[in-house]
Every structure is written in C-alpha cells, then in structure tokens.
Design a protein that fits this description.
Helix content is about 30%, strand content about 35%. By secondary structure, the chain is an alpha+beta fold. The protein starts with 9 loop residues before the first strand and ends with a helix.
C-alpha cells in the first residue's frame, strides 16, 4: 500500500516503488520538477516546508525508501520540541508515515527576513540619524495678484516647525522664497546655532536643472559658507528645500550633542 494513500500506517519508510521509465523522446536530463521521485521525498519535503516556522527541510532515505534522517531549518518562533511534534504529526496525518523523533534534527536561526525588508530598515534607520528631516511643502496663491505663498515644514528630534515666505510668481523668486523659508525653519530648530540664506538660484548642468543654494552657518565664533544642490524633479521649490538640507545637514550633524 502506498504511503500517499489512505491505508495502514507505514513505519519509517516510503512506498518502495521503482521509478517509472521516462516517456519516449524525453531528454537525458529532465527538469528537477519532472525527475522521478519513487520514495515521495519531494512530496514530504514540500509538506514539511509548509509548516509554521519551517524555512527548509531535507529528507534522507536509504536505497529501500526507509527514512534515515530529517533535517529541518526553522525560525526561532517555536521550540525545537514543538517543531518535532509538528513534523511527526504532519507526516503521519498526510502521508501515513510514522517517523522516530530521534531521526529529526532541528536547526534554528535567530532572524531570517527578505533582503528588501532589511534594506528598508537600514534606510529608515539612516534617515532617523539625519539632523533635519523634510516634512512638507505647500505653494498657495499670495495675498496680492501675481504673488505666491510658500510654506515649508521641517522636523528635528521630534519637533516640527513651519515657516512661510511670500514672493512674486517668477521661477527665480519661487526658488529663493522656498530656500528662505527652509532656512528660517532651520534657524528656529537649531537653538545652539544660526543659519542665514546667502542666495539661491537655478543652474543647468549635464542637460538637467538643479537648485543651488549658499547658506551661512554660524556656530560660536565659527562662520562657514555652506553650499548644496538638488536636481529639480517634482518642482523647483521642493528642490530648493532639499538643496538647503544638502548644504546644512552634515554641518548640523557634526554639531549636535551625542
């Protein structure tokens, strides 16, 4: 009676059925999924890897189909004894196969996560280490015709501040207003230091447009000219804010207390 059909329990071995010959015309090296599996090893391994906490499984058999070893790699969520009991129960219930628990070995790993999740965590951790974080930018009609109102919001150590600047509705004025609003917020957030906008403009390089800013950094007796740039993608105003952060973040990181 096959171990894969309902019937009496098979103790420690798969059904010893010889491999069926390959159909005519099939190549000498068929794909792994089409390889003969006379003892049902792959079926058992697929069953075991479907169990909770099991990352991979390998079933080793003798030439007669008797199970000699079962190796399980599992996460640390369940105890090894519980995993062994789950393996025994699954083989018995699904395949009618009773295996001695002493043939089952369990290896556990502390943490296995997809590489995408790890990359996102590293990016998030790095972002949280930055001195100043961008929060929001809005552009609205000004209080008078042909003028706009730009509002920039930044955060520092959990504190969010906003500042607004009104300017004429021209490309250069919009960039300058966005940069000035960003610098105003920075000056409010950095209580131990001070910053002032030196200038902001749009520059062309490598067939692309960039927002370029110069900021004066004042800390104690030290005064530095800080420059930064950001490629214009969504809007020139947004690029101007990121150019200010590009100019000042390293300077503020070096000066914040540990």
């Amino acid at each position: 009676m096959s171990a894969f059909k309902s019937g009496p329990t098979v103790t420690g071995s798969f059904n010893p059925r010889p491999p069926e010959p390959a159909p005519p015309g099939r190549g000498a090296n068929p794909a792994p999924d089409s390889m003969p599996d006379p003892w049902g090893v792959r079926r058992a391994e697929n069953l075991l890897t479907s169990l909770e906490g099991v990352l991979s499984a390998r079933v080793v058999t003798t030439p007669l189909g008797e199970v000699s070893e079962i190796h399980i790699l599992a996460s640390s969520g369940l105890s090894p004894k519980q995993i062994v009991r789950n393996v025994e129960s699954a083989l018995l219930a699904q395949l009618g196969l009773k295996v001695d628990h002493r043939k089952i070995s369990i290896a556990q790993t502390a943490d296995v996560r997809p590489i995408e999740a790890l990359e996102k965590e590293v990016v998030k951790e790095r972002a949280l280490q930055r001195a100043i974080l961008f929060e929001n930018l809005t552009v609205a009609p000004g209080r008078r015709p042909h003028r706009i109102l730009i509002t920039v919001s930044l955060s520092f150590r959990g504190t969010t501040e906003s500042a607004e600047e009104e300017s004429s509705d021209t490309p250069r004025s919009r960039v300058e207003a966005a940069a000035k609003a960003a610098v105003t917020v920075l000056d409010r957030l950095l209580t131990d230091h001070s910053v002032a906008l030196e200038g902001a403009k749009i520059v062309e390089a490598f067939d692309r447009e960039f927002a370029f800013v110069a900021v004066q950094g004042l800390g104690g007796r030290e005064t530095l000219l800080l420059t930064g740039s950001a490629q214009i993608k969504e809007s020139a105003e947004r690029a101007a804010v990121f150019a200010v952060l590009d100019a000042t973040n390293r300077w503020t990181e070096l000066r914040r207390p540990s």
